[in-house]
Fold these 3 entries.
Entry 1:
Amino acid sequence: MKKSITFIMLLLVIGVCSATAQEKKYQLYGIGFYNLENLFDTCHDAGHNDYEYLPDGRNRWTGLKYTHKLRNMSRVLAEMGTDRLPMGCAAIGVSEVENAKCLTDLCDQEPLKERGYKFVHIEGPDQRGVDCALLYNPKLFQVRDAKLVPYIYIKPEDSLRATRGFLTVSGTMAGEHVTIIVNHLPSRGAVSFYREEGGRQLFELKQQLMAEDPDVKLIIMGDMNDDPQDKSMAESLGARRKIKQVEEGGLWNPWWDVLASGNGTLPYDGGWNLFDQIILSQTLLDQKHMKDGKDVELKKIDCSSLKYFRHQIFRRDYLFQREGKYKGNTLRTHAGGSWLDGYSDHLPTIVYLVKEVN
């Protein structure tokens, strides 16, 4: 059976294919998230504190460095999902991107341009000027509409502060209504309360979207700046650890057990955090047949509508430092005041969805 499943996945190249002895056909979709770690252009955006990413700023951010950063980011984005789908992901949420110009330049890089990637971006109020965005392949995901729901500070003393909101993109995938929320919760420089509040606001947004369409396939992704078991995710958002724990209209967070196994997306103090999460609504789960931590044969999942199939942390050798004191850590753009010509301090994450095709 293992060889049979391998053969099935090899057939899932662009879409529809014969897959089992019962001649069932499936289509597979990859959905990813990646923190691009400060994708800035070299020009000042009025009203934003982007001075360290200017040619005369602290990072000496020149045109050469910017073009290298674009090249590196596009390489990762283009390879995400190709472990199972040579055409890569249908949609990828990104964070820490300065503006639409950066996204235009990014999508013009050959690996992405060849596939026709587009993007959704709405300028946000973050003081540094970094936003979230959604890259997508219009052949696989068709955008209906998009909005930026603001993160609201509720303490009076925070009335003059502003940070990244919740980019909410509604679209069609596999003929179904799919909504993706891309966000970047307040950093660890702030106390847990602000991320917990972010989780609560995400929950309220989820409730609103599911009230409008109870059948919507909802995907919440982003750099949460917290791990799956932290209060913002486990309590405020209510994303469950086990598939069978997910209530009707609830959420499942597949990354709890990944972190518990010692794997993560962000190295810290000799260990790993897993801030880069993709959380799924109950409408994407086959709770009868899926089992936590165990791969289930494709033919045993009810794929009559779009369903979760697999998840992974995207890893390539080139994303890691290969020598020195920090060997094994992620290879960043800058570290210790030096330009490393690297990628990001985070690793990307991916979930795979599948649907039976008649």
Note: The chain is about 20% helix and 30% strand.
Entry 2:
Amino acid sequence: MKTSQAFFMAFSSLVSNKMRAFLTMLGMIIGVGAVIAMISLMDGMIDYTMGSFSDMGADTITVSLMGKGSKVLTDTQMYEFVDTHEGEFCDLSPSSSLQTAVRFGDQTMKNETISGVSESYAIIQGLTVSSGRFLAYADMLSRSKVCVIGTYICNELFDGADPVGKSIKIGADNYTVIGLLKEKGDSTKYSMDDCIYAPYTLIGRAAGSAQPFGYTLKMTNSEQSTQAQQELEDYLYDFYHDKDCYMVTNMASLLDIMDDMIGVMEKILVGIAGISLLVAGIGIMNIMLVSVSERTREIGIRKSLGAKQRDIMKQFVIEAAVLSTIGGGIGILIGGIATTALGNMIGVSCSPSGKAIAIAFGVSAGIGLLFGYMPAKRAARLNPIDALRSE
């Protein structure tokens, strides 16, 4: 029997039992759709998470000073450390912070965090201004009362109008806005656009400390982040002789940990979705066994007319494969639609993953062949005489 004839007979059998075929395919449709949606959404979440962490500086190391001990690490000492470790670090920004009210006219924002940074902070974090300029070295030396704000602050205080050149009140002092940053988040509270940057030399003193609260260092090569972190930790330990006096955070290491955790979660979700594909395969095997029982007489007639075992096996294996492949195709379509819809609901840009589609379609076709083999083998081994006697 030609393969084309086997496909024609498979389609004829499915058409003659539409409801049973649909109910059998339903498990495959749900399983394939779930696999595609889960993998694609997880890929979208990974891209979103990694992008968010990368925006925070994947090639940066942050040092937080705990304020313990009698020794004080000055900004001059840290700049000297960077200069002597050019192979590991290429830039540095001391940091300090102040939490206070910010006012402009009748608009007041309570408990806003003012970040004291250096002129290098924009380069380290990849910040760009849409209007005006960023902080300069001269602002650090003169402790100029100037600031750069994000789009969220601009919208809240200035209703989105250009703020450059205007004066805002930070605590009890007046600061001139010299720059407006380009939007990096969604211009909402607690996003990356909810920020005010001022000279660290000024903010530190306003917060009651002559020295920075911490440092942000940009690595020369993020692929050698472990070595750079070790060099920094060795220097800090030699200075303080107490690990409780500081905390070092390596963004590259955090990204690796996050990637591993998300990878494990993805495998668990795919495993759960794979169970539904297994159940769908069992359903296909059951329905094919029923089909063999119902068509025993037909098999006997075909065998008596000269059909060989391989012809009978081919017919039923192809029928099972067609059943699962059609279900898989519908599942791919539904999974793609579900991915886009769910991505829009959670606010993450997601599209059907080519990897997920390939896996789902391959598994659905493979399940059809695997679970269709047993019923096909049983049909092929039927004795023609016994089959013809069947009612």
Note: The mean pLDDT is 82.
Entry 3:
Amino acid sequence: MDTKDKRSKDSISRRNFLKIMGVGAAALTGCRGDGRAAGNAGPSGTVAEGSMSYRTNPKNGERVSLLGYGCMRWPTLQEPDATGNVIDQEAVNRLIDHAMAHGVNYYDTSPVYMQGWSEKSTGIALKRYPRDKYLIATKLSNFSNYTRENSIAMYRQSFADLQVDYIDYYLLHSIGNGGIKTFRARYIDNGMIDFLLEERRAGRIRNLGFSFHGTQAVFDEVLAMHDRVHWDFVQIQLNYVDWRHASGNNVPAEYLYGELEKRGIPAIIMEPLLGGRLSKVPDHIATRLKERRPESSVASWAFRFAGSPEGVLTVLSGMTYMEHLQDNLRTYSPLEPLSDDERQFLFDTADLMMQYPTIPCNDCKYCMPCPYGIDIPAVLLHYNKCVNEGNVPRDGEDPNYHAARRAFLIGYDRSVPRLRQASHCIGCEQCNPHCPQSIDIPKQLHRIDEFVEQLKRNTL
């Protein structure tokens, strides 16, 4: 039995958990002497321009905004436009204009984001600004075709779609999926790592790194290539739950960050909200955070945690809506680093959350499409939503059982059409190799389906 399964099996009942819950880095400029953030937000919650926190890349001295824009979840159109683009370009332009005006200069995309349209839309929006005012990060996302020809074609297409003649931060995408054998096939055996090193020497790549999802053995082996490759940065998943629990990684973030810090390699942070789950925590956890810091959002705790380590260059956030962007700007304009006491408070919070865990799905949709039509992310996210809202009925002794049962079943049918629900999973496992969180997706779908059937039978 693996660790995640054991946590799930050993989880305490909802009633007992709620009883338990009833019991109770170097500072950046712009922090007030009393420990509160400097007053850059006005009465309307707007943020003054010029107050963004920056970190300096030790490799080249460039200033990078501590808040980075993740371009995997741009706003979409109700129907694709005449070219087939699913992205609302006008909305993207407005978001990037607001971000640029408030100091965000790092934009992270990929050839596979937004059905292949993210690079093009991001490039259109940024092309309106001088090239030296923004930093572009994109990836070699050669997941299914590892040939040198296909990989080089993907690399060159990124330049065309982004409308640039150099890329500031180029990543080997999602190292660890498929193990070290897959890594070697994608980047070593086909000669791509040597090609990219030559591109860096030619200046078409300014910084070369990789993003990681996998086992410690893979991470250690790829990092050991540093003597030959000289990784300029590494992108890791880091948040206050994954720091020790590794709920969304196979490796605790504390280990990943520590190994980078030893080598002086800057860290770029993805999933600071654990796929959004740290902005939509269970109600009792939200109350705990709001009591400690009433003026701050629940999400801001996670962003302060991710941005506080000095070796962090930037923290990525996929900000689909203006309110997401504005809230994150408030957190990082400027950042108020966590105190030691606040860090411990978040570690204690993470321990409480792991006693009643959600499924570590971040809605990346890499598992889609399912050959049997299942809406995998919708099924998993509905379950997580019900966990967070306390609508996962455990037993008939729970006074909330009937209301929770009704909310779960009705919400399930509304969120996921019957023909796309977990009951249609045959366990083919085609989805598993694509999941960056290493979720055993069929196992979770079958568990949720059994739970749904039990709720339908047990009317009490």
Note: The longest helix spans residues 441-457.
